[in-house]
Specification:
5 helices; mainly alpha; 89 residues; two-stranded antiparallel sheet
Length: 89
């Protein structure tokens, strides 16, 4: 932030306007997945996803208030781990 303030003070006319949402979303997925999305992806009942969460055997999720969400990157990593485990067996 300090560098941006200095840059603004030095050359305010050459400053490139960027959308603040672009900075905020950098590295974030377009949206997080819900338990229903996970059930649909894996073609399993929603209750199975709930049991995975309870037993800590499925893709890792996190809470946003009272809502459960899954990061798509974590789901992809989980799928890769499962594939590797099957190949090793």
């Amino acid at each position: 932030m300090w560098a941006q303030l200095v840059e603004d003070a030095v050359s305010p006319t050459t400053r490139i306007q960027t959308d603040p949402r672009t900075t905020l979303r950098a590295g974030l997925p377009d949206h997080y997945l819900t338990p229903e999305d996970i059930a649909e992806i894996f073609k399993v009942p929603l209750e199975t996803v709930r049991q995975w969460r309870k037993k800590r055997v499925g893709p890792p999720g996190f809470r946003v208030g009272k809502y459960l969400r899954y990061d798509p990157a974590d789901v992809h990593r989980y799928i890769g781990e499962r594939k590797a485990a099957d190949m090793a067996a």
